[in-house]
Amino acid sequence: MRKDAKFRAAYLRAGLITADGFPIVLACSLQGKQVSRVAGSDLIAPIIAEAARSGKSIHLFGSNSQVLNKTSRLLQERNAGLKIAGVLAPPQGFDPASEDARRCIEAIGNSGADLCFVALGAPKQELFADHGKRLLPNVSFVCIGAGLDFIAGAQVRAPHWMQRWNLEWLWRAASDPRRLVYRYLLCMVALPGILARAAFVPRQR
């Protein structure tokens, strides 16, 4: 986020930001701010339940067609009356700022959805959600990472005890080492500096 101005700007425009990661919770505590960790995938069940209760329709975007179709079926089985306006899987190499993205956003708008779950992973999902919100101000976009894959069983989320002890990152790294081990190593290198700044540099916000 420090290196990518567009990614940073998308976060600054977000209507709600949750602490998806224990290092963020720890850094906040060093500044005297008590927050709870809330992963994107944790948001799905309560928001879906409220959407079904209030008659709001949802759209699923990201992952792949097989996951989207299975997830939509499971969500409707678990939430009576849930309206799914549509599902859409972007092509490989999807660019959230491209003409393809604009067409996808147009399709989401035409579906009549009230809110859209975006499962692309960071930073693509945040950039796409920011783009979508500007073109469709009446649609809410919720970034959920691998949340749809967890529901469909395409990926297995860490056991509850690992989540409780803030070890979910270790489970994910072991599940997909080629993609994630290097990313987490970079995080470990950056973490001491982040925590030091949180502890010693005063923040107004």
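Next protein, fold it too.
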Amino acid sequence: MLSGEWYVWNDPEIEADARRARGLAARFQAAFAEGADTSSILGRLLGSVGEGVEVRPPLTVDLGYNISVGARTFVNYGLVALDIAAIDIGEDCQIGPNVQLLTPIHPLDSEQRRNKLEAARPITIGHNVWLGGGVIVCPGVAIGDNSVIGAGAVVTRNIPANVVAVGNPARVIRSV
């Protein structure tokens, strides 16, 4: 999976890891609703969580353990982070509501899809990045430090540091 090679998405080992992640995500949401400290659950769900990270549920992940979140990052409600490949989120980021970070790749060949094949490419989000509400980041994309991605943008290719990008597909409109 992490190497980008094809795998069967309903493999029993992957499914067991996904079940574990769904259970932890449900516990995280319940603890948040009760006003309890959620940091220990989040720490078990995700691969790494920096100091001062705030995540608001619901949080949907594939496996959880392929996600790292840098210190002081804020994640608003409804993040979908499909982490079959690594998702690295830098420090001091702001992630708006209903953002999707999607690492899976599905084959164009219908026979491969019928056979439930899938691959994945990692996503890297630099430090001090702001993803507006509803942003979709596609497989294999890297977003450079200090960049801003406008609400609703679909990021299909790498975005350099220190820019504002908007639209579908996202395009750079200015420097910051």
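About the second fold: The chain has a mean pLDDT of 97.
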